[in-house]
Amino acid sequence: MTTPEPPTGPHTAPGAHQASRPRPASAPPPAAAQRPAAAAGGGFRKELPEEVLASASTEEAAPPERPGSDLSGRQRLVKGLWPPRITRAQLIVALLLFGLGFGLAVQVASNSEGDSALRGARQEDLVRILDELDDRTERLEDEKQGLEEQRDELENSSDQAEEARRQTLERERQLGILAGTVAAQGPGITLVIEDPKGMVESNMLLDAVQELRAAGAEAIQVNGVRVVAGTYLSDSGDGVSVDGNKITAPYRFKVIGKPQDLEPALNIPGGVVQTLEKEQATASVERSAEIVVDALRPAKQPDYARSSSQ
């Protein structure tokens, strides 16, 4: 015995069994049941596929196209460059570049002209130009060397002349002090010999002069008479004659030298001071920081002696 098939409707797929319990009217049927029913019955699908929904959402989210987006790359480049918008800094840079380019062009043109002139010259002309350049270089080198030699000569001659002049003046001053032709000043001592009894003789004064010279005296003056290397002393009645000039007591010696050496030389045991005291004369020595010896002797030209320096 066969079982009778249930009746099929427009929304019921063939072979589908009805639910044992009726579903509420408000609840939609499951999607799984609708898909086979739609497929089986050949009706329209109540909902769209997922691919269609995804493409529709993408089209809705895409931004609207900008105007002019259909321009080509070259057209967009031309549109960006024109009309030009120049700033002040760009204008200054452009001017500087223009000036630099102009200068380079002028330099290149001048070099090209010179090269072209030499390039078109004949061999004889090139040889002549080289000879002239060599001659000019040689003349300039000679002139430079001559100027350098002249400079060195002037420097050396001026230095030597100045040094020679300074040495000559210094030597003249020293010789003048020794010869008694120039005045002198400096530290030294003053020796005063008192002779109340008239017992002092020329030899005693000569001993004093020799002791002072041995102690380093550089200039000596006795009673206004300059004592030099050729000075002689002699007795003259109640006094002493120095180079023919008669002097009398008290005898005042002005001596330039180192006071620390001159004074002890006179006070040594058995020296000048003790010898004078034995003759009932007194001698006093006083140091001074400034002694002036201003007695001068006339310069005498030797009769026979001549300088041996050439």
Task: Provide tags for this entry.
310 residues, alpha+beta, five-stranded antiparallel sheet, disordered N terminus
Protein model, in words:
With 310 residues, the protein is an alpha+beta fold. The chain has helices spanning 31-41, 50-61, 73-81, 88-119, 123-179, 202-214, 259-266, 272-278; strands at residues 184-194, 219-222, 225-227, 233-236, 239-242, 245-247, 251-256, 282-293. The protein contains 8 helices and 8 strands, in the order H-H-H-H-H-E-H-E-E-E-E-E-E-H-H-E. A hairpin with a 2-residue loop joins strand 5 (239-242) and strand 6. The radius of gyration is 67 Å and the shape is elongated. The protein starts with 30 loop residues before the first helix and ends in a 17-residue tail after the last strand.
Mean of pLDDT: 76
The counted number of beta strands is 8
Question: What percentage of residues falls in helices of 4 or more residues?
Answer: 40-55%
Whole-angstrom Rg: 67 Å
Shape: elongated
Name the structural class: alpha+beta
Number of helices: 8
Largest sheet report: 5 strands, antiparallel
Taken in chain order, the helices and strands follow as HHHHHEHEEEEEEHHE
Q: Give the CA-CA distance, first to last residue.
A: 175 Å
Q: What spatial order of strands do you see in the largest sheet?
A: 3-2-7-1-8
Spans of at least 5 consecutive residues whose pLDDT stays below 50 are 1-20, 22-44
> Strand content of the residues, in percent?
15-25%
